[in-house]
Amino acid sequence: MSRCSKCIHFLAGGVNGSDRPPSDLVRTDDVGLCRRNPPVWLPGENGDEGMFAFPAIHQDHRCGEWEGRLPC
């Protein structure tokens, strides 16, 4: 089935930039990052700050850009 968890562009449990180490930010809610396209700019709350980030998506979603992972 062509869902995000089986796509080469999906990073399971991935998190976007932070000042904390990645090991502190492990996700266990079946959400990861789609790395098919470059990160997009997300403005901060006050409009002055922000960050570039990959879209966070659930592993069961699907899209037209899906590419299967190579078998190990």
Labels describing this entry:
72 residues; mainly beta; three-stranded antiparallel beta sheet
Question: What features would you describe in this structure?
Answer:
By secondary structure, this protein is an all-beta fold. It has one domain. Strands 1-2-5 form a three-stranded antiparallel beta sheet, with no helix packed on it. A two-stranded antiparallel sheet has the order 3-4. The chain is globular.
Fraction of residues in β-strands: 25-35%
Tell me, briefly, the overall form. globular
Oligomeric state: single chain
**SS elements, strand count:** 5
Q: Evaluate the radius of gyration.
A: 14 Å
How widely separated are the two ends?
A: 18 Å
Helix and strand sequence? EEEEE
Biggest sheet strand line-up? 1-2-5
Into which percent range does the helicity of residues fall?
under 10%
Mean residue pLDDT: 84
List segments where confidence is low: pLDDT < 50 over at least 5 consecutive residues.
none
Structural class: mainly beta
**Could you say how many structural domains there are in total?**
1
If helices are DSSP runs of H or I spanning 4 or more residues, what is the number of helices?
A: 0
Q: How would you sum up the major sheet? A: 3 strands, antiparallel
Q: What topology does this entry show?
A:
Elements lengths: L9 E3 L18 E4 L5 E4 L6 E4 L2 E3 L14
Give a nutshell description of this structure.
The protein is mainly beta and 72 residues long.
